[in-house]
Amino acid sequence: MTASLGRALILLALLAASAGALVGFAAGVRRSAAGLAWAQRLAYAYAAAMVSANLLMVYALLARDFSVGYVAQVGSREVPNWVAVTSLWSSLEGSILFWGLMLGLYVLGATWTNRHRHPESMPWAIGVWLACAAFFSFLIAGPAQPFHTVPIPPSDGPGPNPLLQNHVLMIIHPPFLYAGYVGMTIPFGMAAAALLSGRLGPDFMRSLRTWLMLPWVFLTCAIVLGGWWAYEVLGWGGYWAWDPVENASLLPWLTATAAVHSAILVERKGILKGWTVTLILASYLLTVLGTFMTRSGVFNSVHSFTQSAIGPTILVFLALATLFAVAILALRIDRLSPEGHLEPGVSRDMAFLLNNLFFVLLTFTVLIGTVFPLVVEAVRGVQMSVGRPYFDRMVVPIGVALLFLLGVGPALPWGRASAEQARRALLPPLGGAVVLAALGLALGVRNPWTLVALLFGGYAAFVTFSELWLPVGQRIKVRGEGMLEAVAHVQSRGRRRVAAFIVHGGMVLVMIAIATSSTQGVTVEAQLVRGESVALGPYTLTFLGVDRVSEPHREALVANVEVKKGGRDLGVLTPRMNYYATQREPVGTPAVRSTYAHDLYLSVLNLDAQGQTLGLHAMINPMIVWIWIATGIMGLGGLFGLLPSRRIAVALAPAMAVDGSLSPARSR
Amino acid sequence: MNRKVFVAGLAVTLPLVGLMLVSLGRDPHKVESPLLGRKAPPFSLRPIGGGEPVTLASLRGKTVVVNFWATWCVPCVDEHPVLTAAPQRYGSDVVFLGVVYEDEEPNVQSFLREHGAAYPSLVDEGGKVSIAYGIYGVPETYFIAPDGTIVSKYVGPLRPDLLDGFVQEAQARAVTRRSDAR
Q1: Which end of chain B offers a freer environment for a tag, N or C, measured as fewer CB atoms within 10 Å?
Q2: Is A623 exposed, middle or buried (0-12, 13-18, 19+ CB in 10 A)?
Q3: What integer pLDDT is reported at residue B177 of this predicted model?
Q4: What one-character DSSP code corresponds to residue A68?
Q5: What is the mean pLDDT of residues A120-130?
Q6: Mind telling me how many Å the CA of B174 is from chain A's nearest CA?
Q7: ipTM value > 0.85
């Protein structure tokens, strides 16, 4: 009964999406207001059907209704209710259904907030969204049907993959990733609409950028949450391994970040329209590529779902979507004529251009490193992998160049700067650069790349902070406002600008933390007999012994390691080895003690069953917590910029909107 | 129509999509076994439920299919009907053997009672044979030619068509050897 109802809801979603896509395109061609209204209704209908189908699945998971195929596959009476709910996205079919839910919510939000705006573009946008929605509904209705009826329901099910139950981050990482991936559908549709309607005015660009920022925020957080999970769970002490599927999530982030920046030039100057649209189309196509990579079994990764039949289906969609994107670009890009031009010379405009260049370069670098093994295997039939050395060698210089721009770009004025202006803008932040680099030197940093990163990071931090402070300080000085009042005014009038610099601040911190943690760590490996100690930096680590722990889905050997620092007792850390019934190799779980300066990271290399000897891998990883904190800052900053502000409501003039008249020294 | 954009767009995207297409059947877990083309490691193992030990060397002259499996492995359960149906089709020239991998004998016995058995499953005490064959996950199946060389190895559940292909390959090797000798 539940299963049939679920299938009916999915068919309804498929029907609404397909009809809505056709109606949207027809309304776009005919410029029909009535057609647009119908496309909107069908978009709402699609969203309603998808939300209902997901609620039904959650209900079935909670009720342990094993007559529903997906519940029989991942449900279990043993697991607590929160695990039952989260198993909605723990396995292939459920994750695609969840994808449908996200798309439904996004389509609902984007259709609703633009219901009275951009009547010339919205029919096209809704048409494209619903065409994508129709594909995913088809996937749910056919190859990945989660609502199969199980004729003779089992009395209990196996429960979700135990590896996915062992950390809370694994529960939040996927929804964030889906919110990022799926959300790219909205800017994709709007960019396509700009091409199809042949118009990309500042007002539509502003809506587009808003809907690009939202998935961007989620994707940013998802990437780092994934790294955090790897760090806390996998036990090798790092957070990023250039794993193909990690790269798959990074690729759309790179192009989307480039687009977030070039969109500002579209708004302010009416230039780079075709380029920005291309970046946005590419961002979506890269999310589809990433989805294919995780679900086709082509790549070997901790992320891979088991090999499934939906790989080819997604590939067909990828091919069609790519062809569509290339075709509309070729046919319509010339209609998006520029309204201004870029003046040569040193300016913030030029920094934006370089920023885009580097981001695209980075995209291709990562893309090539990711697919190169496939090329080699296809051409020569030899298996190989591209590892850290390639990525480190290629990505680090581009990353450092971007960090340089993160400081210099916002310091420069718009338009063309005179030599005097440039000097006045660029010299003071050198103070920040020197201070941070000197601090690094004093603390023992000798790696040249790290020192350069600190130098540029200090510069960028100085610029970011003064850009945030400048308008506030001016209000206090000129208008005599109090600090809080000034901050309140500035953030409400130039909210997007404030948000941008908060995000920049977070990014600077992330990059400094990555540069430091990846080069300044200390590591030791030791074979300890019970009672023996090993020294690591300021710490003394003593192996006290082993506890055996029996948990429902696993057995574990827990090593007790006493941590002392300068004679002071800091407690016992417990890295462990877990033995799962369904897995041959034991899976280690590291123990991490975080401070603001560094993490002490312990993982078990080997452990004898009698608990007499311990192979210990111990690391000091500097500044790690700042990566998580700074990502939180970036995420919150991004969301803050999306809150409606007074200025956005009245802004039609693009030049006023970005940083307004509050910093006259910088605005023109 | 902007030709340049069209050509550039296709030049970037087509190879990528094409690459994904040719890679589609790829199995990233597949690592060529170093045993291919070499003599199969010898073994002499006791069948489940008792009886005379089965010695690989005594099967020289016949094509041997050695399937490593366990009752706890879901794909093994899936391929079980394919394997039990096979001996009848091939007759006495092809010998099928199961080697039980990290499993309890009573589990295996009750499994075979329930699902049927068409050939002996052997007990691998201490997993020595599994180690010699480099097993890293079940099911894995080795195809041994009549001259005792390993011709192919398959990782994952067998389908009837795959099984036929591998058996024919192992038999064909024997035929070519014979024609070489002439």
Answers
A1: C
A2: buried
A3: 54
A4: B
A5: 97
A6: 27
A7: no
Which of A285, A330, A375 lies nearest to residue B19, judging by beta carbons? A375
Mean pLDDT for A641-659 is: 53
Q: Which of A297, A317, A293 shows the shortest CA–CA distance to A138?
A: A317
Angle, CA of B14, A326 and B2, to the nearest 5°: 115
Q: Do B2 and A296 touch (CB under 8 A)?
A: no
Q: Which H/E stretch holds residue A576?
A: strand A576-580
Instruction: Please compute the mean of the pLDDT values over residues A497-526 and round it to a whole number.
Output: 94
Matching residue, tokens 């058995």: B117
pLDDT value at residue B26: 66
User: Chain A partners of B1 at a C-beta cutoff of 8 Å?
Assistant: 330-331
pLDDT tens string A478-493: 988 888 899 988 888 8
CA distance A321 to chain B (A): 11
Strand, coil or helix: A393? helix
- Residue A306: burial class (beta carbons within 10 Å; 0-12, 13-18, 19+): exposed
On the question of a cis peptide bond just before residue A373, with omega within 30 degrees of 0, the verdict is: no
Residue A656 scores a pLDDT above 90: no
Describe the strand order of the beta sheet including A598-607 as a list of residue ranges: A522-529, A613-622, A598-607, A591-594
- Residue A43 CA to residue A20 CA, distance in Å, equals 6
Question: Whole-number mean pLDDT of chain A?
Answer: 89
pLDDT digits (tens, 9 = 90+) for B156-174: 888 888 899 899 888 887 6
Predicted pLDDT of residue B28: 59
Comparing B70 with A107, the larger pLDDT belongs to: A107
Residue B96's SS3 state is strand
Residues A168-201: pLDDT tens digits?
787 888 899 999 999 999 999 999 999 999 989 8
CA dist A600 → A229, A592, B75 (Å): 16, 6, 41
List residues of A whose CB lies inside 8 A of any B CB.
274, 285, 289, 292, 296-300, 304, 307, 311-312, 315, 318-319, 322, 325-327, 329-331, 333-334, 367, 371, 374-375, 377-378, 383, 581-582, 584
Separation in Å, CA B96 to CA A254, A532, B144: 54, 53, 10
**Residue B66: its H or E element:** strand B63-69
B66 and B97 Cβ atoms separated by less than 8 Å: yes
Q: Is pLDDT of A658 > 50?
A: no
Residues of B in contact with A367 (CB under 8 A): 16
CB A458 within 8 A of CB A434: yes
